[in-house]
C-alpha cells in the first residue's frame, strides 16, 4: 500500500512541478491539480486539492532566487487554501494522506530537472536541503549522469557546512563522491577531499576517509601506507564495524590468512557485546572468521547484480574444466618455436568475439581496444554456454586479461578464477618447454600465449606470490628477451622471500640497462643484503644518473605523492620513483640499515643538487 502511495506521490509531484515551472504562481498549480492532478490521484479530486498547497509550500521558485513562497495554513473555520470556497475543516483538513509528504521532495525533483546556469545558481544559493542534495545526487549517478551527480554532491562539501549536523547525508555523499572522482579520473579532487575531511571533519567522517585511503593504498600495492591508514581509522572510530572488513583485506594483502581469521573472530566478539550491533554485519564478520578469502570473493562476485549470476557460473565452469587440447606448433628456419591458431581455434575465437565485441590491443603488453566489462553479461553467458571456446588460446588470453583488469589487485580472488586458469594454461606451457628452443614474442602468434601468462602472473601476484613467481620464471626461461618485463617481478618476489643470492642472479641475467629501475634497485638491495656494499654503491650510481629522484623519494618518511595516471611512468621521472617506492619500500625498510645507508650515498647528494638547480 505504502509503495503504491510513494509512486502516486512522485507522479503527482513531478506533474505539479512541471505546472509550477510554466508559471511559478499558485493559481496555475491549482488549475492543474483539479484536472491532471486528480488523474494522478486515481480520480480523487479531494486528494489532488489537498496535496497542492503542501507541494507549493516547499517548491523553490526561480523568480524568488530559489526561495519558497509558502501559504499560511488556514484555521479550521477559514476558507480552505485550495480555493474551493469551503471551510478548511470541511475540505482539505479532512483529507487523510497515507503518509506525510517529505519536506525536501520538491527540491529533490527540481535539482533533477534544472540544467546549466540554473542548476549552478540553485546550488550556490545554499538553500537546498541536505537530504534533497543527497537523493538528487544518488538518482543522477544511478541514471548515468555522473557529471551532474558530482556537481550536486560537491555542493554538500562547499563552504562552511556543519558536517556533524549533516551526519545522515554527508557520509553517504562522501562515499559516492569519492567513487565518482575515481570513475571520472578526478584523482586530484579525490585526494583533496580526503585530505580536507581528515584535517577538519568529524570523527565519523574522518574514519570513513581513512578507510578510503587504506583501500586506495591497497589498490596501488602500498601495503605500509595501507596499514598506517587502517590504524588511523581504528584510532579515530575504534568501534566501527567496517574496520573488521578493512583489516581482513589488509591482512590478506599482506599474506596473513590465519591472522585475518583471528582478527575477524576478535571483531565478532567485540561487536557482539554491543546492543546496537547489526545482525547482518555480525553474520558477515562471522563468515570472515571462518573463511576470509571465500567470504570476500563471494562478496565481490555478488556486488553487481547483473554480473553475479554469470560470474558464479564462470567460477563453476573453471573448476570443472578438463585439460586443453595440445597446440599445433612449428619451427622457423632458424629453429625458433612458432604458434599459429588452427582453423578450429580461429572459429572458436570468432564465437567469443561476436559475444564480447572488444578486441585485444595487439600493440600493448596488456589491454583491450575498449572496456570488455561493458559487454560482460553477454560474453560470460556465451562462454558458459560454449565452454569449448576455452580451447582457443586467444579466448584464454582475452578472458585472463579481462579478469586481471577487474580482479587482479584482489588477493582473495586467486582461487576463484586465476588458479584454475593457471592449471589449464600450464598444459600449454609444459608443451612449449618440452618442445625446446626459443619462443619469441615477435614470432608468429606467440604473443597470445605469452600475454596470457603475463595476465595470470598479475592475477596471482598478490594472492599467490610464490606461484606467480614460479610461472614468471618459466616464462622468462622461454622468452629470454623478457618482452613481458617479468624480471622485475621475479626479483621483487625473491627479495620478499629472502632469496638474495637468487634475486641477484636473476637481476644480472638480464640486459645491463639502468633505465630498468625496478631491476637495478633490486640488484642494489640484494647486494646490500649480501654485504657487498661497494658493488651496491657502484650500481646505485648508475641508477641515480638515470633517475635522480629515486633515493629521496624512497628514503623520506612522507614524500609528496606522485599522480600515477598511467601504468608505466616515463623513465627517469619522479612518478617512476614513486611507483617503485609504493611497490618496494617495505622491503628496504625491513632490511636492517638499508634506508640509512642509501641516504648517505654520494650519488644521493648529487641527485639532490641536480634537482635544486
TrEMBL record:
InterPro entries: SEC_C_motif, TPR-like_helical_dom_sf. Gene3D superfamilies: Tetratricopeptide repeat domain (1.25.40.10). This is Zinc chelation protein SecC. It comes from Salinicola endophyticus.
